[in-house]
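Task 17 of the worksheet. Students: predict the tertiary structure of the chain below and write it out as structure tokens. Keep your answer in the requested format; marks are given for formatting as well as content.
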Amino acid sequence: MNTIYLATGNDHKAAEFDAIFAASGLPCAVRSARELGGMPEVDENAGTFSGNALIKAHALRALAPADALVLADDSGLCVDALGGAPGVISARYAGVGAGTAANNAKLLAALEGVPPGKRTARFVCVLALLDGAGKETLFEGVCEGRIIGGLTGTGGFGYDPMFIPEGYERTFAELPGAVKNALSHRGQAAAFLLRWLGDLR
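Model answer:
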């Protein structure tokens, strides 16, 4: 059985990965970075999702058992009307430590006056997987959608209450968790990862 340590301090992300792996049926034991003493502090300065994911993965790789895999996620929301912002700084869009409410408020303010047809956006996720030797494998998922003018729904986290995925009329925060996981950028990237892990069996 593969043991995979998640290079994140975000409990919401860890819970989503737990659910995704549990549903896959693959013989993988998903472990939190907390079991290794917590996720090390890193400077996510790569400027790309893949670069930041690798920074986090290598930081935790140094603490993980040699026979384990390490998985890191870097993801964000890219809004066309804002030139792709907030992008790689999605989690700290309103400033370091500002939090979800401030990030959401800043994004809604930035889009004030932008008509519905111009509010196209996408969530992007890159997963970086490192084996015991530090070999890097990347998996990317993208979920297209649009940003609405307010917050709707109580599920999910981050920008979920304002993002409606393409083909739906409800936000990520309104959709059941299993539906979101199947549609989301993280779910898509994880599907590629699970397929890759399945080929190793």
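Marker's comment: The chain has a mean pLDDT of 92. The first helix runs from residue 11 to 24.
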